[in-house]
């Protein structure tokens, strides 16, 4: 037996009337939202924040990848502690993991985390399993143990004092990279030497220096807006 066709909940005539009634309401809401936005724009602090954000967005158009503003205070803090330019840390972050946007933070040869440390570099080459490229056979719990890292002379740092030095934690990774670069030569002003120690490739050195110089040129503007954004979130 054929099913009885159900009548629509609202007739077509009523549906048309509802649409006619909703159009002016939508226009009115849009009008008041627009007025509110214009009022906000007239507030000096709000206007200044918009202009500065637009300024940074505009200058980052020249970058092949935008630097996430939330990372800049971390670069700055790590750089200040170890005497490393934050723009150099940003350059390494860009080259190593495209600002941590890679599908995986583990390389084919075993480098790990935001800044791609080989386990033996992070934990220390004095570890008895460390040979070759430095993948080692280090227990997972030892890889992030500050006491083990100190024992074997690694570069891993517990930046946020949570008892763990984790290459997958952005603060720990950045402080660890700054620690490495400082000891590799940056503390003595030997940038090229330090960069080469991070990855033994002249092409790598050239890439890092390219981004470092690009970011350094706009460092003041980037710092100002990044810190304003960070303070606004507090």
Write a brief structural summary:
By secondary structure, the chain is mostly helical.
Main β-sheet, in a few words?
A: none
Q: Architecture of the largest domain in CATH? A: Orthogonal Bundle
> Structural class, judged by helices and strands?
mainly alpha
Q: What is the number of E strands?
A: 0
- Percent of residues in helices: 55-70%
- How many distinct folded domains? 2
Mean pLDDT: 87
InterPro entries: Lysozyme-like_dom_sf
Protein name: Lytic transglycosylase domain-containing protein
Keywords: Membrane, Transmembrane, Transmembrane helix
Organism: Metasolibacillus meyeri
Question: How is this structure best described in words?
Answer:
This protein is mainly α and 234 residues long. It folds into two domains: 46 residues; 128 residues, Lysozyme, CATH 1.10.530.10. Helices cover 60% and strands 0% of the residues. The termini are far apart. The relative contact order is 0.12.
Structural topology:
Layout: H1 12-42, H2 44-60, H3 72-82, H4 86-97, H5 119-123, H6 140-143, H7 146-152, H8 170-184, H9 191-198, H10 202-217, H11 219-232
Protein name: Lytic transglycosylase domain-containing protein
InterPro entries: Lysozyme-like_dom_sf (IPR023346)
Keywords: Membrane, Transmembrane, Transmembrane helix
Keywords, separated by commas or semicolons:
Lysozyme; membrane; single chain; 234 residues; mainly alpha; Lytic transglycosylase domain-containing protein; elongated; transmembrane helix
């Amino acid at each position: 037996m054929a099913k009885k066709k159900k009548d629509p909940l609202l007739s077509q005539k009523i549906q048309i009337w509802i649409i006619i009634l909703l159009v002016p309401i939508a226009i009115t809401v849009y009008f008041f939202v627009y007025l509110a936005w214009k009022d906000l724009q007239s507030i000096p602090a709000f206007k200044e924040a918009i202009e500065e954000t637009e300024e940074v967005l505009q200058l980052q158009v020249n970058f092949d990848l935008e630097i996430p503003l939330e990372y800049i205070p971390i670069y700055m803090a790590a750089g200040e502690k170890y005497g490393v330019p934050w723009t150099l840390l940003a350059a390494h972050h860009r080259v190593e993991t495209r600002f941590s946007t890679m599908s995986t933070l583990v390389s084919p040869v075993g480098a790990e985390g935001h800044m791609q440390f080989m386990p033996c570099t992070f934990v220390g080459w004095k570890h008895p399993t460390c040979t070759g490229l430095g993948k080692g056979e280090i227990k997972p719990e030892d890889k992030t143990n500050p006491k083990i890292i100190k024992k074997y002379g690694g570069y891993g740092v517990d930046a946020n004092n949570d008892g763990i030095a984790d290459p997958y934690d952005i603060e720990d990774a950045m402080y660890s990279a700054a620690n490495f670069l400082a000891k590799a030569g940056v503390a003595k002003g030997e940038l090229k030497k330090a960069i080469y120690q991070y990855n033994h490739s002249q092409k790598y050195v050239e890439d890092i220096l390219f981004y470092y110089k690009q970011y350094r040129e706009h460092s003041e503007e980037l710092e100002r807006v990044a810190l304003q954004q960070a303070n606004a979130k507090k």
